[in-house]
Design goal:
Two copies of one chain form a homodimer. Chain A has two domains: 4-164, 2-Layer Sandwich (Ribosomal Protein S5, domain 2); 169-297, Alpha-Beta Plaits, CATH 3.30.70.890. In chain A, the strands form two sheets. In chain A, strands 1, 2, 3, 4, 5, 6 and 12 form a seven-stranded mixed beta sheet that branches. With 307 residues, chain A is an alpha+beta fold. In chain A, β5 and β6 (158-163) form a beta hairpin. Chain A is built from ten helices and twelve strands.
Chain lengths: 307, 307
C-alpha cells in the first residue's frame, strides 16, 4: 500500500436557495491542500501549515475527528499524520470545515485501498462537522466527497442522491463579517406557512428538474427561497443589493451560501460570472466592507488526488 | 376546418404524496368520452350522455365554463355543442372535473386548428375547476392536457414543467364514501414545522430525481408525505390498512389521490399492480365499504383523439 497521498478538497455551497438543508454543490476553487501519511505510531497527528491557528488536538480538529471516526471502524490500530494547508477561509460559509473533514477521510481511504464506500466516508466526515458546529450534518460533506450537485433526500437515515448538472459558473463573494451558525439557526422560524412550504417544494422540484434536464431557464426560475432567505439575509449587510446587482449582470440566481456570510450566484458562462463579480464589488466597495470574490465553476468531482 | 371531433380525456392523480399541490400524473384509464361539434349558433350547449345528472347550463358545467373561457379569447363568435359521457365518476378524487374541462378545450382547439398553446388550454380549463371546487387550480388539468407527470412549479404565475417518467403501473381504489374537498382543505394545518417541510422537500427532490433518472428504488423511498397524509388520511376509512397491505404486496408507494377518497399506489410491473388491487380488496370487503378498483398505467399522453 502507498503510504502517503496529497489531496485537494473543495469548497462547497450548501443550502442552495430553495434547497435549504437538502441541496449542495462542489466548487472548483478554493480548496484545501492536505497531505496524509501513515505513521508507525497509532493515532492521529495534525500539523497546520497555514496561519489560521486551528486546533491541532485531533478530537478538536475537524480533520482529526473525521480520521478518528474512520480509525474506529478499522479492526487494526493505524497511525496518520495529516498536514493541512487551508485554502478555504474558516467561517466563510463555503464549507471550510467540511473540506478538511472530507479531504482527510478520502485521503485515508486511498491509503486503505478504498476500503470504504463514499457513503461511509460521508458518515466519518460528519464527525468533523460535529466538532465545527455541534451538528453532524452532511450538507457540505456530501458534495465535497461526491462532487457536483448532491441531494440529501433524508438525513436520518442518510440518503445521498448525486444529481447530474449542466456546466455552471459560480461567483462567490465573502464579505469579511462574522455570521455565527448558531445565530443563523436561532433566527429561523420553527413553523412556516403551508403555502410558503408548497411554493418552496415547487421550486425545489423545478431546480432538480432544471439540473437533470440542463434547462438553464428553469434553474433560474426555480432559484427562489421564500422561507430562509427573507429571514437570514438580514444578517448579511448588502445582501439585497448584491442580489439585485448580480441579477442585473445576468446571473441565473443565487443566495446565501450555507448560513453565510458568503453569497453565491450561478451563471451560464464565465463572462457573466465575471460580470457578476464586478457587480458584487460595486456593492461592497462603497460600503467599506472588506470582501473576497471567487469566480469559479461547479466542480463535477469532489476531493481530487495530486498526480 | 373539421367541424367535429371525439376525444378521450383521462383521469389524473394530483397531490402525489410529498408533492402536495405541485405534482400530478395522467392515468390510461378511466377516461371521459367527449364529442364536440361546431354549431351555427354562437355559445355553448352541453349534452350529458351519462347518468350522473351534472348541470347542463354552461356556466355551471365544468366543460361549459372551460369552453366559455376559450370562446372569450376568440375574436369571432363561435358555437359548440359538447356531448359528454363521463367514464370517471364525479367526486372520486381522480380528476373527474379536470378531465371534462381539459377534454373540452383540447377538442375545441383541434377544431380551431391548434390555435392555442397547451399552457393557454390549461388556463381555459382552470375556469372549469373553479366551477367544480371554487379554486382555479391546475393540479389535475396540467397532467390531463400534457400527459405523463407534471410539475406545477408555480401556480401564480403559472409555470408547468412536464417531467419524463419511466413506465409505472397504477392501482387506484375508490371507496364509495364522500370526502368534500372543502373539508379536506379545512382540516389542513396552515402552519407546518420547518423540519417537516425540509423532510418533504427532500422527498420531492428525490421523487423528481427518481422519475427523471428512472430510479424506481429512489421513487419508492421518496414517496413519503409527513405533512398532508397524516392529517387527511383520517377522513378515509381503511387508509392505513390499504397502504400497509399495498406495500406488503410490493407497491413502490402511494397515498391519497387528490383530496381523496381514492387511494393510489405505484408499482413497477403489472403483476404487482394486480396484487396490490387484490390486497386493497382484502381490506375493503370485510369493512363492508363499497369500492371500485382500477388497475392501469401512467399515461404518457393526456387527452387523446378518436381515430
Amino acid at each position: 500500500m502507498t503510504d502517503s497521498v496529497t489531496v485537494y478538497s473543495p469548497a462547497t455551497v450548501a443550502n442552495v436557495v430553495c434547497g435549504f438543508d437538502v441541496l449542495g454543490f462542489a466548487l472548483a476553487a478554493p480548496f484545501d491542500t492536505m497531505h496524509l501519511r501513515c505513521t508507525p505510531e497509532p493515532g492521529v497527528v495534525i500539523i497546520n501549515e497555514d496561519d489560521y491557528g486551528l486546533p491541532t488536538e485531533p478530537t478538536r480538529n475537524v480533520a482529526g475527528a473525521a480520521l478518528l471516526a474512520l480509525l474506529r471502524a478499522l479492526p487494526e490500530p493505524l497511525g496518520f499524520e495529516m498536514r493541512i494547508n487551508k485554502g478555504i477561509k474558516p467561517g466563510s460559509g463555503i464549507g471550510s470545515s467540511a473540506a478538511s473533514a472530507a479531504g482527510a477521510v478520502v485521503a485515508a481511504n486511498r491509503l486503505l485501498n478504498d476500503r470504504f464506500s463514499p457513503e461511509e466516508l460521508v458518515q466519518f466526515a460528519m464527525f468533523g462537522e460535529e466538532v465545527a458546529s455541534g451538528a453532524r450534518h452532511a450538507d457540505n460533506i456530501a458534495p465535497a466527497i461526491y462532487g457536483g450537485f448532491t441531494l440529501i433526500r433524508s438525513a436520518d437515515p442518510l440518503d445521498i442522491v448525486p444529481l447530474q448538472a449542466p456546466p455552471l459558473h459560480v461567483t462567490v463573494v465573502h464579505p469579511q463579517i462574522e455570521v455565527r451558525t448558531a445565530d443563523a439557526r436561532r433566527i429561523l422560524r420553527q413553523q412556516v406557512p403551508l403555502k410558503d412550504a408548497i411554493r418552496q417544494w415547487g421550486n425545489v422540484a423545478g431546480l432538480v428538474a432544471g439540473l437533470l434536464q440542463s434547462d438553464y431557464d428553469l434553474i433560474g426560475r426555480s432559484l427562489e427561497d421564500v422561507i430562509v432567505e427573507p429571514v437570514r439575509s438580514i444578517l448579511i449587510p448588502g445582501f439585497a443589493a448584491v442580489k439585485a446587482a448580480s441579477m442585473a449582470a445576468g446571473a441565473l440566481g443565487g443566495g446565501i451560501s450555507g448560513s453565510g456570510p458568503s453569497i453565491f450566484m450561478l451563471s451560464r458562462d464565465e463572462a457573466t460570472a465575471q460580470a457578476v463579480g464586478h457587480a458584487m464589488r460595486g456593492v461592497y466597495e462603497p460600503l467599506g466592507v472588506d470582501f473576497h470574490i471567487h469566480v469559479t465553476t461547479l466542480s463535477p468531482v469532489g476531493v481530487r488526488f495530486a498526480v
